[in-house]
Amino acid sequence: MSNYLNNEATASTEIPRNENEVENANQTGLEKPAFDPIKRIEKGFQFFKINEFNKYPDYYRQLAEKQEPKFLMFACSDSRVSPTNILNLRPGEAFMNRNIANLVPAFNKLRYSDIGAIIEYAILALKVEVIVVIGHSRCGGIQRLLSLPDKKTSYDFIDDWVSVAKPAKEKVISKHPHASGEELQTLVEKESVMNSLVNLLSYPYVRTGLADKKLKLIGGYYDFVCGKFEILAVDSDIKPTIDI
Ligand SMILES: [Zn+2]
Fold it and tell me: Which domain of life is it from (predicted)?
């Protein structure tokens, strides 16, 4: 890992980012280039192939044989909060689920079988050691939860899904009856992480892993407005124990 990090500085500077292309276009007064998805995918993979895959053949040869991720992570589908980017994860480090508002519903064999399958496989087959639920600032899913009930707009799936965090919303509103706007949203975003951690306890494999001390649960919160990552204390009082 340290070898990988140390070599980062020597990586090719030709980073395939659309933002760079747009910035260059703006500087030269040219019009924004048309978005070419195939070109973007090809350039992105080429960058990874040169700077990662070809550079660390032993690492990727081992990884081809088996994965042994230490983490199972739940993060939001929001394009700004990928744990791979913000926590500098390499392939093989984290088994992952990303969904709207980074929610984990309680154990239910009749619903949410995708989430259940991920937890079951991660613990029983991959033997992950840590489950991390990562919330984030300005979450659209939590914003939608706060707007419910909404008689004007309805969605086929979103409202039902974000309602998984309804207990968090109710708890925050009863504890902070005067909170509103961004303050209320931040409190619910953090409490929702706690709600998901509590829901994780309803999975028998999680309970067994915790009892055997082979598993840990961690709550995290990424604030992309000020670029901060907090580890949330799991006592549900939303007190950060570590500020990074
Ligand atoms: Zn979100």
Answer: Eukaryota
